[in-house]
What does this fold into?
Amino acid sequence: MGYHSLDSIHTYFQDFAYRDQAKLFAELLSGPVMDIYVGQSKRHWCLHQDLLCYHTSFFHNQSPGEEKHKAGKVELLEEDPRAFELLVKWLYQGKIDDVSDMPMDKKWDYADACQKLYSLCDKINMPQLKNVAIDQFRKGCHEAGLVPGPEEIKPIYETTTPRSPIRKLISQIAARQIMDPESQSDAGTYRLCFEASADFAIDVVNAIRQGTGTQLFHDPTEEVGCFYHEHGTGQLCRVS
It folds into this structure.
């Protein structure tokens, strides 16, 4: 189990989200601290409770049956510690790293962490950081030349609401992969997601429709011949 004390966090009020509100920042750092355990490994952070509560009500609201809230303690065992580490950096420094400054072999891992950060922020209601996370995720995918596969897409649809912007982004990525003639992906690639979520199937079809613009498929009812008959290719068709 990892432990992260406040001494390991480099905090500079001039870089903080409030910038010109150093007094407020100091006040938020003067109160009690909260123990937070993240992931199956229960990675441990000890953070200022007032700072957490300033950004989201999640940390001072009781949520029976979901997360364990006790006096000065919160467990987020379903979340990714990499994502929470980024959240902590943003809380204390007002920013997270830019994927463009990272070497190529680090870009995809960072993009994936930012996607997990988006899901975390969606859960605890931190919209400002959520917007930062999705921008870094998009940029990381683009610069790494990689996109999420069905294993990454499925949990996104399981944990977000129908109108979530990341659903729109993910469904458009999948639609583009399906329609790209140079891609090795086809609709079958996403069978796992189609079976798990009707919303994903609808979103992908709508994205394909939007992406093809006014181009209309050939009318299959106008076909002449035996295109839809059951017999071998080149076999004489005896249907008159």
About this structure: Residues 104-124 form the longest helix (21 residues). The first strand starts at residue 3 and ends at 4.
